[in-house]
Design a protein that fits this description.
The structure is a homodimer of 344-residue chains. Chain A has 344 residues and is α/β, with parallel strands linked by helices. In chain A, 51% of the residues lie in helices and 16% in strands. Chain A has an 11-stranded mixed beta sheet with strand order 3-2-1-4-11-10-5-6-9-7-8, sandwiched between helices. The radius of gyration of chain A is 21 Å and the shape is globular. The termini of chain A are far apart. At the A-B interface, α9, α10, α11 and α12 of A face α9, α10, α11 and α12 of B.
């Protein structure tokens, strides 16, 4: 496999460009095939790169002073941000200069710019935000995490196709299991959209194993490989999960702190906590993918650190390596063909 | 304060009637003012009561062999369950023989029967399921947790009123803060219903402090006292939170188990784990309330144990003591009056 060029929006995120450059340096050690096209303010990026000569050797900086800020409306970002680091980074994927783009910037703007610049894959109506979650069985994908506030049944079916291709590509699962999140497992449960979607899933012949309705606690249990949900509920669920991990971690810290004796025990338990952190640390799961676009776009948490940003780069590299969009396109091609045969 | 009579559906839940009777015995120790009206199969309940003479002394058993099973459709439960332990227990609240009812049985059936038998409080269109969640600041209430799959803006406003009265009654908070759960804090975020609801909340003069939109991780942080959400998303969030607590607990167990050394540390850390469990244990938060009904109905988790069921009884006692429905009625009366004045 030859080199992979990753476009980086160096100016997106709470602690940009530091986390972007330091994160790229970390990722570069893990992925020797990676080269970087870095978009942003050369006067800030230059000194950071000087500290990482190995990264510097595989990076090109494209200077721009403009950037999209965290609270810009997407429509304004598109109009006023034509020369922003975010837009230029996306353009480089469209123009074939990079194979993927990673940004820790404004989610709405990144989605709107990506959609407008890269367009959708044929057969997909709307992009979805997808990420991996830790489960009792390993990892599962969940989508949509907030790109689409309202979804129809057909959108949900497409999310199933996208999510299945995602876990095939990222986790190497041959026939992914897919579940529709709902308030109960019985067929009579839920509103019209999920019920209609369940019928579409059952009737479809996509190469995944549809397991029907699943519930909120199935995410932690890892009952299926792909959890499908509308973007409103998916975003609230994901953030509720993140908030619960923070709460539990805080309770755990306080429980071990609250007496002198257990402070000592806390010190002794350091290795156990290290093992725990290695599994529950949200930075490990950093890097949500915008699926359904004609190009690979990965969004990092805005508040992540070097390690977290390096993992978002890792997600993008894995998807380029494993040909995510080829898998999606192949499956949709087959679907459109079969659909045509049925109609004839 | 005189006695409080609690109606118990002894036949609801995975391990009924054992958890119901043993749970009542536990609750009886905590609430000496509690007396019980127990509905169910005398041949099963009798021997259990014999083991708890103190409970037996404050209990009356109403025998019925019929009960609602866990997978009965609500409509069928209503038609065929007229003599079921669940229906008879609800009837006893309507007839003034008991001040509240607790059941660990079929949620949909309990909601449908309660609505039909007790009716709604004036000014409330739909009941909502409400429960307390642990947060970094203490506890907050969240509703609706699954009674209403689709909600309009007015339903959400009413949930705010109900939730505020609930935390006033249960936690003694004088002016509760209320937040609308959404995918972002900015006014432009979210679908039409939450946006319309935010306008209604801002324009209303209910005695709570509306804090606008809040996000999923605000639940764990405890940003507000009352989190308002539609029943579809609320149910999925609550179960996602429960699943995350289970996942984290499992990871924690494995981290302390995975080497001989840390097994010893695990033993030493037993007190810290006890303190942790005392805060995160879902049994402590057992007991969801059906708000908006003309009577107090508390739903216990079907799979809970004696301790969990005793806490669901505790919720019902607290609400009777603190006059939950009087608080709701008073606030709605004031609202209807003020609304009338505005129109005039």
């Amino acid at each position: 496999m030859g080199n992979i060029t990753i476009a980086l929006d160096a100016m997106g995120g709470d602690r940009a460009p530091d986390i972007v450059i330091n994160g790229a340096a970390l990722a570069g050690k893990r992925y020797p095939e990676a080269t970087f096209l870095i978009f942003g303010d050369q006067t800030k990026i230059g000194p950071l790169l000087d500290e990482h000569p190995k990264l510097q050797a595989v990076s090109n900086v494209v200077h721009t002073e403009e950037f999209v800020s965290g609270d810009d409306k997407p429509s304004i970002a598109i109009r006023q941000g034509r020369k922003s680091s975010m837009q230029l980074a996306i353009n480089s994927v469209k123009d074939g200069e990079a194979q993927c783009v990673v940004s820790a910037g404004n989610t709405g703007a990144l989605m709107a710019m990506s959609k407008l610049t890269l367009r959708m894959l044929p057969g997909i109506d709307r992009p979805a935000i997808c990420a991996l979650c830790p489960t009792q069985k390993g990892q599962s994908a969940m989508l949509d995490l907030g790109a689409n506030i309202e979804c129809n049944a057909n959108n949900l079916l497409q999310f199933g196709v996208l999510g299945a291709a995602y876990v095939k590509s990222l986790l190497g699962i041959k026939i992914p299991t897919v579940g529709l999140l709902n308030v109960g497992e019985e067929e009579i449960k839920g509103g019209d959209v999920v019920k209609q979607a369940a019928v579409l899933f059952r009737d479809s012949d996509f190469p995944f194993d549809f397991r029907g309705f699943v519930e909120g606690d199935d995410v932690g249990a890892g009952t299926v490989d792909v959890f499908v949900i509308d973007g409103f509920t998916g975003n609230l669920m994901l953030k509720a999960i993140e908030g619960t991990v923070q709460l539990y971690t805080e309770y755990l810290r306080e429980a071990f702190k609250s007496s002198g004796g257990s402070k000592l025990v806390g010190l002794l338990a350091r290795n156990a906590f290290k093992r725990l952190k290695a599994r529950i640390d949200p930075r490990i799961y950093n890097g949500a993918t915008f699926l359904g676009l004609n190009g690979i776009v990965v969004k990092s948490h805005g508040s992540t650190d070097d390690f977290g940003f390096s993992n978002a780069i890792g997600v993008s590299v894995d998807m380029v390596k494993n040909g995510l969009n080829d898998i999606i396109t192949e499956e949709l091609d087959g679907y459109v063909e079969r659909k045509g045969q049925k109609t004839n």
